[in-house]
């Protein structure tokens, strides 16, 4: 064989070996599972997707209060598990001087006030949605985020999140992220206020607050205005869904792959550096590492989450509700993974472009926002080009 | 597809729930003190799963054992916002607390 021929043979062998090692694998598309599922796990993932997309009706447990009739109604773009255009309403009472600073208004049906009712409840109570009680001091609209990669966020050890917190700004960088905690003392990480500690809880609770479909983990029906459900409006005995259905749904959500970031071109590489220089990466931490306690396909991985899963003061203009220890102006750093798939931004979808979203950052993020405003046009464009690769 | 999904939901909704799920609420709950009314002997604790939040009401007697970090505590020392573990049961249809352990004192907002 001639020397060029030998060289080509060696190169082809190398490519083949790399492909066998996984380097030629197609990056996961929205709605795909993470890599490493067995055949049986892949089947379970697919069964979970059917459950996630299943539509409920009153005869199968829907309502009497609800926001949606299927998980997939709100998490659908560009694939099942993605974002949605539905906006829901939360309300709480914040009393800074009271012993319990944040009252989630549970006795009045809070903190999630469902926007739809079944025909039976409408006939019984003459309401079209659950009214917010006068005791509420804040209302917050919440857009439907994608849940892609949430299993990886769930697999980040508490210690990794706590290590990023700096509640007194001891390092003097102007950023004082702090953890939120659930009612039982566990560290929170899910939801726009980082209140929910675990994906399993997030999923089981969502069946109840979004669809009023009770299940073994959360067997009590949503109570209209905090009162007992009127007789005859909730025909299915509780729990309305069994554990297997919850487990299937949880399996699907847990193993949904995060969107693979796009390849960085030169401008985006510049933008990545500018993003860091502006201070954005202090809260939107580029990478978190999952722990060894997670399921094998989620174990010991770097996830390009672009969040610290802590709450930060975002300023008075964004302030809405409190939740747990989070004050009205504190929000969890929104994960930026999958940002390029989104069409609306911020916790309530008020921004229609990434640039608008940056402009809306206040509080601790105001200095970074101001530095972004002051960038030369080329660096500004580079920053946006980088963000559009996530 | 819609028919398939309806059949699956119907099956899963109507299938018998595991026995554990049909039992009464567990005797131990961990949550945050919402209110404590010493006069009426009533403690309300916030609990929940995900964003499905609930308030559990329990009867408490003034003599109930209350502890924190191994030391005993008067019931009146409990504050809204404290994270507590309550061991209790059901008597005459209402929940009763037998002992309370304060796990974390109220952190409050900053």
What's the helix count of chain A?
Answer: 13
Order of SSEs of chain A: HHEHEEEEHEHHHHHHEEEEHHH
Structural class of chain B: alpha+beta
Q: Give the number of helices of chain B.
A: 2
Per-chain topology:
The complex is a heterodimer of chains A (390) and B (110).
Chain A: H1 3-20, H2 39-53, E1 65-66, H3 71-74, E2 84-94, E3 102-103, E4 112-113, E5 116-117, H4 119-125, E6 138-144, H5 150-154, H6 158-162, H7 199-211, H8 243-254, H9 266-278, H10 280-283, E7 288-289, E8 302-303, E9 311-313, E10 330-332, H11 354-359, H12 366-373, H13 377-387
Antiparallel strand pairs in A: 1-5, 2-3, 2-4, 2-6, 7-8, 9-10
Helix pairs in contact in A: 2-8, 7-8, 9-13
Chain B: H1 2-14, H2 19-22, E1 28-37, E2 42-49, E3 52-59, E4 66-68, E5 71-72, E6 83-91, E7 94-104
Parallel strand pairs in B: 4-7
Antiparallel strand pairs in B: 1-2, 1-6, 2-3, 4-5, 6-7
Features:
heterodimer, A: alpha+beta, 4-stranded antiparallel beta sheet, 13 helices, B: 110 residues, alpha+beta, OB fold (Dihydrolipoamide Acetyltransferase, E2P), 7-stranded mixed beta sheet
Structural write-up:
- The complex is a heterodimer of chains A (390) and B (110).
- With 390 residues, chain A is of the alpha+beta class.
- Chain A has a domain of 172 residues.
- Helices cover 31% and strands 9% of the residues of chain A.
- Chain A contains 13 helices and ten strands.
- In chain A, the strands form four sheets. In chain A, strands 2, 3, 4 and 6 form a four-stranded antiparallel beta sheet that branches. Chain A has a two-stranded antiparallel ribbon with strand order 1-5. A two-stranded antiparallel sheet of chain A has the order 7-8.
- In chain A, strand 2 and strand 3 form a beta hairpin.
- The termini of chain A are far apart.
- By secondary structure, chain B is α+β, with helices and mostly antiparallel strands.
- Helix content of chain B is 15%, strand content 46%.
- In chain B, strands 3-2-1-6-7-4-5 form a seven-stranded mixed beta sheet, with no helix packed on it.
- About 14% of the residues of chain B have low confidence.
């Amino acid at each position: 064989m001639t020397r060029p021929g030998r060289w080509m043979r060696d190169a082809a062998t190398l490519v083949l070996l790399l492909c066998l090692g996984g380097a030629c694998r197609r990056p996961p598309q929205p709605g795909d599972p993470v890599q490493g599922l067995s055949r049986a796990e892949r089947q379970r993932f697919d069964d979970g997707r059917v459950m996630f997309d299943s539509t409920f009706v009153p005869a199968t447990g829907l309502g009497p209060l609800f926001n949606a009739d299927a998980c997939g109604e709100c998490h659908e773009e560009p694939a099942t598990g993605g974002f949605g255009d539905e906006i829901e309403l939360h309300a709480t009472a914040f009393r800074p001087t009271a012993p319990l600073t944040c009252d989630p208004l549970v006795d009045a049906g809070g903190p999630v006030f469902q926007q739809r009712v079944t025909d039976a409840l409408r006939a019984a109570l003459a309401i079209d949605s659950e009214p917010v009680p006068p005791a509420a001091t804040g209302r917050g609209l919440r857009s439907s985020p994608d849940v892609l990669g949430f299993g990886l966020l769930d697999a980040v050890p508490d210690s990794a999140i706590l290590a990023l917190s700096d509640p007194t700004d001891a390092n003097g960088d102007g950023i004082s992220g702090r953890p939120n905690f659930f009612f039982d003392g566990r560290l929170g990480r899910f939801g726009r206020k980082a209140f929910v500690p675990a994906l399993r809880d997030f999923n089981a609770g969502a069946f109840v607050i979004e669809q009023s479909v009770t299940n073994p983990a959360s067997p009590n029906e949503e109570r209209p205005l905090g009162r007992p459900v009127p007789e005859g409006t909730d025909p299915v005995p509780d729990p309305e869904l069994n554990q297997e259905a919850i487990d299937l749904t949880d399996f699907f959500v847990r193993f949904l792959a995060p969107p693979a970031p796009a390849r960085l071109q030169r401008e985006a590489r510049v933008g990545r550096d500018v993003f860091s220089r502006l201070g954005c990466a202090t809260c939107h931490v580029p990478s978190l590492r999952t722990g060894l306690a997670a399921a094998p396909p989620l174990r010991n991985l770097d996830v390009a989450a672009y969040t610290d899963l802590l709450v930060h003061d975002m300023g008075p203009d964004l302030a809405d509700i409190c939740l747990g220890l989070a004050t009205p102006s504190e929000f969890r750093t929104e994960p930026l993974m999958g940002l390029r798939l989104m069409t609306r931004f911020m916790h309530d979808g008020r921004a229609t472009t990434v640039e608008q979203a940056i402009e809306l950052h206040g509080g601790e993020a105001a200095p970074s926002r101001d530095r972004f405003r002051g960038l030369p046009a080329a660096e500004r464009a580079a920053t946006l080009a980088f963000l559009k690769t996530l | 597809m819609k028919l398939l999904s309806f059949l699956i939901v119907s099956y899963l909704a109507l299938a018998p729930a595991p026995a554990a799920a049909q039992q009464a609420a567990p005797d131990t709950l961990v949550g945050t003190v919402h209110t404590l009314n010493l006069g009426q002997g009533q403690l309300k604790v916030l609990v929940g799963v995900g964003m499905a939040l609930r308030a559990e009401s329990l009867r408490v007697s003034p003599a109930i054992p209350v502890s924190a970090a191994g030391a005993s505590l008067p019931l009146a020392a409990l504050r809204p916002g404290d994270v507590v573990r309550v061991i209790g049961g059901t008597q005459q249809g209402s929940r009763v607390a037998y002992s309370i352990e304060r796990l974390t004192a109220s952190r409050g907002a900053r």
